[in-house]
């Protein structure tokens, strides 16, 4: 009997927290302060949307759960590193993340910088030292995929465009291009890495990649809407920060109602890409619903 969505999410979030605790260096290992800060930045925070997408895609392709745990952890470590660096004074200069002081506030800027560096390299160490596929070439492709999603033509590149766009007006295609890289690349990688831990054909992979691209964009549109509608306590981060800093958002470009409609369109298109998978894509559909319909 299949469990309901909330029970499925709760079970995987709990299990995954234990996975992360075991994979991160223990706080008592030298250098203790760095390892303590790494654990602070990663553990006990966030809804783990990217790992959940990896788990759902892995279930669709019949992947071994232990393999997906490692792929999901690599993605989450990259995500955590990006948040630590994004919050620093040289970037977004924020003091609150996931309802607690940001890493550079809790520790210091130098430690936060090293935390991000260390989390990034640990992600690739995990992908290299654990067997995620019986096909060595596929595992190399998984490492390449995460590297591409993380670097200058993925997440880091999107952040660079974001910083260069402060105070500017972007056209919709330019804004989409930025967020396909800044936010969407890692979400797409989460879906694909989870799927590649199992058995997936090139055609299925293309469909899942399309799903990841659409739901990644939808995630950002909804974030922009929530940034206007929710308060800091609800979001767990400083509300309205992008607008205050003059960053272009979907709401500033389209208006609140049109941004909501765009999120709805992306949601429908994402669900359409899963049609051929039938009931095996149920969790991916439910996660798409959660991403777009979340109210926090």
UniProtKB/TrEMBL annotation:
<dbReference type="GO" id="GO:0016114">
    <property type="term" value="P:terpenoid biosynthetic process"/>
</dbReference>
<keyword id="KW-0808">Transferase</keyword>
<comment type="similarity">
    <text>Belongs to the FPP/GGPP synthase family.</text>
</comment>
<dbReference type="GO" id="GO:0046872">
    <property type="term" value="F:metal ion binding"/>
</dbReference>
<dbReference type="GO" id="GO:0004659">
    <property type="term" value="F:prenyltransferase activity"/>
</dbReference>
<dbReference type="InterPro" id="IPR053378">
    <property type="entry name" value="Prenyl_diphosphate_synthase"/>
</dbReference>
<dbReference type="InterPro" id="IPR008949">
    <property type="entry name" value="Isoprenoid_synthase_dom_sf"/>
</dbReference>
<keyword id="KW-0414">Isoprene biosynthesis</keyword>
<dbReference type="GO" id="GO:0005737">
    <property type="term" value="C:cytoplasm"/>
</dbReference>
<dbReference type="Pfam" id="PF00348">
    <property type="entry name" value="polyprenyl_synt"/>
</dbReference>
<dbReference type="InterPro" id="IPR000092">
    <property type="entry name" value="Polyprenyl_synt"/>
</dbReference>
<protein>
    <submittedName>
        <fullName>Polyprenyl synthetase</fullName>
    </submittedName>
</protein>
<keyword id="KW-0479">Metal-binding</keyword>
<keyword id="KW-0460">Magnesium</keyword>
<dbReference type="InterPro" id="IPR033749">
    <property type="entry name" value="Polyprenyl_synt_CS"/>
</dbReference>
């Amino acid at each position: 009997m299949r469990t309901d969505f909330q029970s499925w999410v709760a079970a995987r979030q709990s299990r995954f927290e234990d996975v992360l605790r075991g994979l991160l260096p223990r706080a008592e290992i030298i250098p203790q302060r760095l390892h303590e800060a790494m654990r602070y930045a990663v553990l006990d925070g966030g809804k783990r949307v990217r790992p959940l997408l990896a788990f759902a895609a892995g279930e669709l392709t019949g992947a071994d759960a232990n393999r997906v745990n490692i792929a999901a952890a690599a993605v989450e470590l990259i995500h955590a590193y990006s948040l630590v660096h994004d919050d620093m004074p040289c970037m977004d200069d924020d003091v609150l993340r996931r309802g607690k002081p940001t890493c550079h506030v809790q520790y210091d800027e130098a430690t936060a910088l090293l935390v991000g560096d260390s989390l990034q390299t640990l992600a690739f160490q995990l992908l290299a030292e654990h067997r995620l596929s019986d096909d060595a070439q596929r595992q190399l492709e998984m490492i390449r995929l995460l590297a591409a999603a993380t670097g200058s033509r993925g997440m880091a590149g999107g952040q660079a465009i974001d910083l260069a766009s402060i105070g500017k007006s972007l056209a919709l295609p330019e804004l989409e291009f930025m967020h396909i890289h800044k936010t969407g690349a890692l979400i797409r990688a989460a879906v694909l890495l989870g799927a590649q831990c199992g058995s997936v054909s090139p055609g299925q992979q293309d469909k899942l990649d399309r799903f990841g691209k659409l739901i990644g964009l939808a995630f950002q549109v909804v974030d922009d809407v929530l940034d206007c509608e929710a308060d800091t306590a609800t979001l767990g981060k400083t509300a309205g920060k992008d607008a205050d800093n003059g960053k272009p958002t979907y709401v500033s470009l389209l208006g609140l109602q049109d941004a909501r409609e765009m999120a709805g369109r992306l949601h429908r298109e994402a669900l359409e890409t899963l049609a051929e998978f039938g009931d095996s894509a149920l969790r991916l559909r439910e996660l798409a619903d959660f991403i777009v319909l979340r109210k926090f």
